[in-house]
Design brief:
Blueprint lengths: L22 H18 L13 E6 L5 H12 L3 E6 L11 H10 L4 E6 L4 H6 L5 E7 L5 H15 L6 E5 L6 H12 L3 E5 L14 E4 L2 H4 L5 E4 L15 H8 L3 H6 L5 E3 L12 H4 L6 H20 L13
Parallel strand pairs: 1-2, 1-3, 3-4, 5-6, 5-8, 6-7, 8-9
Helix pairs in contact: 1-5, 1-11, 2-11, 5-6, 5-11
């Protein structure tokens, strides 16, 4: 199976965010993900598409799903991997972020997958290296590959996002996932409603193509997909919500609210879940939950992104996925 595909304009070097991408670009990535999903079903889910390439995970924030998903994707493409851990690095000795990036780049990294607590850091990193840079989450700004895998998971279930009504529920104010998903979902034709107490809404939503509700029960029955966000208490100042118990009562997806969803509605969560807060254990295992599908699809989607940024410059032999 040949993977000789054209890299979308604007994605030829880096993936720093969903902002600025077109529907055509998003659909091309999702189409390519389909081809890598097939590879994951093989007895040996590995191809030589990025043999000789080096993928470096540069995470300044803790992560399990995103980091392991990218590393699994790189290995399935036969790339070499480097893993940077901020806690055991020379940053504790006073080394600057730029010095760290330059050192990792000097090891021959072809792509840096960057997660950082400060918004805009992947953009800065892209100015300090010749490697490609993928934003794996920057502060409260964006998380583009999460949005892409969410779009792919919904498309896998419904065939298209056109006309879908998607509610994003929870800590929108601090969520990079929400920002990327609003842009991606709406670009692919979905109607997006943000659902949260006013204190957890962004101070300004600019020209976000969304509707807003402060009462989940008022809109839940109209949703085709209910996307729950983790409460990011580590980013909170005091007084945003009375308590987690009160938040769960008003905005958590529990058994009662699950019955209010339509019978074919979908339930999503980017993980990790705080069971009993934004979602209960019984809802996590409801047949309408596609949370584990999101995890599985993350590897295929990230294979597609890595190949799209790096694989186009390989030889035709390396660009082939052999049957």
């Amino acid at each position: 199976m040949s993977l000789d595909v054209e890299t979308p304009p604007g994605l030829s070097k880096h993936l720093l965010g969903i902002e600025g991408t077109t529907r055509e670009q998003l659909e091309l990535i999702l189409e390519l993900t389909d081809r890598f999903a097939e590879i994951g079903k093989r007895p040996i889910p590995k191809v030589p598409a990025l043999r000789g390439r080096t993928v470096a995970s540069v995470f300044f924030e803790d992560s399990t799903r995103t980091r392991l998903s990218f590393e699994s994707a790189a290995r399935r493409l036969s790339a070499d991997t480097l893993t940077f851990s901020a806690g055991s690095s020379s940053l504790s000795k006073g080394e600057s972020l730029r010095d760290t990036v330059e050192v990792i780049s000097s090891y021959g990294a072809d792509v840096l997958i960057v997660r950082h607590s400060m918004a805009g850091t992947p953009q800065r990193v892209s100015e300090w290296t010749n490697a490609s840079v993928i934003n794996a989450g920057d502060g409260c700004h964006e998380h583009p590959t999460q949005a892409l895998l969410d779009c792919y998971t919904l498309k896998q279930q419904r065939g298209s996002l056109d006309g879908m009504s998607i509610g994003i529920v929870g800590d929108i104010r601090h969520s990079r996932v929400a920002r990327s998903n609003v842009l991606a979902f709406s670009s692919l034709g979905a109607k997006v409603t943000l659902i949260a107490p006013q204190t957890l809404m962004p101070p300004s939503m600019g020209n976000w193509p969304v509707e807003v509700s402060n009462v989940l029960d008022d809109v839940i029955s109209d949703l085709d997909a209910c996307y729950l966000l983790r409460m990011q208490s580590e980013r909170h100042s005091k007084g945003l919500i009375p308590s987690l118990r009160e938040y769960a009562k008003d905005f958590g997806l529990n058994g009662r609210r699950c019955e209010m969803l339509s019978k074919d509605a979908l339930i999503l969560h980017p993980g990790p879940t705080n069971q009993g807060v934004e979602i209960t254990a019984e809802v996590s295992t409801d047949p309408r939950s596609i949370i584990l599908d999101q995890v599985t699809n993350g590897v295929s989607l990230r294979m597609a992104v890595l190949f799209m940024l790096l694989g186009q410059h390989e030889t035709s032999k390396q660009d082939e996925v052999q049957e």
